[in-house]
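Inverse folding, one chain.
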C-alpha cells in the first residue's frame, strides 16, 4: 500500500506565561499513528520548525498515558521520527494522500499563524487528498482557503476541542485562540459530543475533524477508510 499521510506537529513548547510546558498531546499522535501504520499506510512526521517536536509533559503520565502512547514511546522507529521531524518549510504536499494536524495546546500558538501550515493544508486539499485534524490541531485548517478565496471550513461540518472543554481545563484563560470559536467565526458548522471529553468526529467530504484526544483513533479510521475506498474505486 503506497498511500502516505503527513502528520503535522506543533513546535511550540511554552504554555503561555504559566511557566508550564506544552506541545503535542501524545495520545492524539500515537493513537492515530498506529491506526494508520497498522493498516499499512506510510506516515511521515513534520513540525513547524523541524527537529525534535515537543510533547506535552502531562500526556506522558497516568492517567493520560494510553496503551498507544506507551507503544509509541517503546517504538524506536516512531520515537526516532518524532526526534527528527522534517521542517514544514521543506515539505511539499506532493505525494501525500492525506494530512493530519495533530493536537496539543501548543498548536494554538503556531498553527494559526504559520504560512507553511496553510500551504500544506491547501496543497493536499486542492490535489483531492484528505485534510484532517483533531482537538487544537484543527486550527491547522483554519487559515486554509478554497480556490475561490473562501475559508476551507466555511459551511462544512467540523469539530475541535469545545469551548466548554477549554473552560473545564482552564485553557480558555491560557491559549490565544479557542478552536470552537474560530471555526464558528469562519462559518464552520460546529458540532460536538453531548458530554465534554466524549469522542466525536465530523466528516464533510474530504474534511475529517475530531473533537479531543478520545477522538483521535476514530479520525484516523475515517481517513484510512476514505483512502481505502479511493484505492478501490474504478479508474
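Residues assigned per position:
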Amino acid at each position: 500500500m503506497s498511500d502516505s499521510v503527513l502528520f503535522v506537529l506543533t513546535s511550540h513548547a511554552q504554555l503561555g506565561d504559566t511557566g508550564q510546558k506544552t506541545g503535542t498531546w501524545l495520545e492524539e499522535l500515537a493513537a492515530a499513528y498506529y491506526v494508520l501504520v497498522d493498516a499499512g499506510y506510510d506516515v511521515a512526521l513534520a513540525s513547524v520548525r523541524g527537529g525534535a517536536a515537543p510533547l506535552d509533559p502531562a500526556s506522558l503520565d497516568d492517567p493520560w498515558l494510553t496503551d498507544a502512547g506507551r507503544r509509541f514511546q517503546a517504538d524506536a522507529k516512531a520515537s526516532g521520527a518524532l526526534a527528527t521531524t522534517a521542517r514544514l518549510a521543506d515539505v511539499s504536499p506532493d505525494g501525500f494522500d492525506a494530512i493530519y494536524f495533530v493536537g496539543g495546546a501548543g498548536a494554538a500558538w503556531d498553527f494559526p499563524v504559520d504560512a507553511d501550515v496553510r500551504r500544506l493544508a491547501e496543497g493536499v486539499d486542492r490535489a483531492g487528498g484528505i485534510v484532517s485534524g483533531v482537538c487544537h490541531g484543527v486550527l491547522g485548517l483554519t487559515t486554509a482557503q478554497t480556490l475561490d478565496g473562501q475559508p476551507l471550513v466555511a459551511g462544512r461540518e467540523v469539530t475541535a476541542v469545545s469551548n466548554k472543554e477549554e473552560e473545564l481545563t482552564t485553557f480558555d484563560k491560557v491559549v490565544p485562540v479557542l478552536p470552537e470559536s474560530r471555526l464558528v467565526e469562519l462559518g464552520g458548522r460546529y458540532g460536538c459530543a453531548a458530554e465534554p471529553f466524549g469522542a466525536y468526529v465530523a466528516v464533510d467530504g474530504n474534511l475529517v475533524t475530531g473533537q479531543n484526544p478520545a477522538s483521535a483513533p476514530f479520525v484516523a479510521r475515517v481517513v484510512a477508510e476514505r483512502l481505502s475506498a479511493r484505492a478501490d474505486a474504478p479508474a
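The chain has a mean pLDDT of 96. The chain is about 30% helix and 15% strand.
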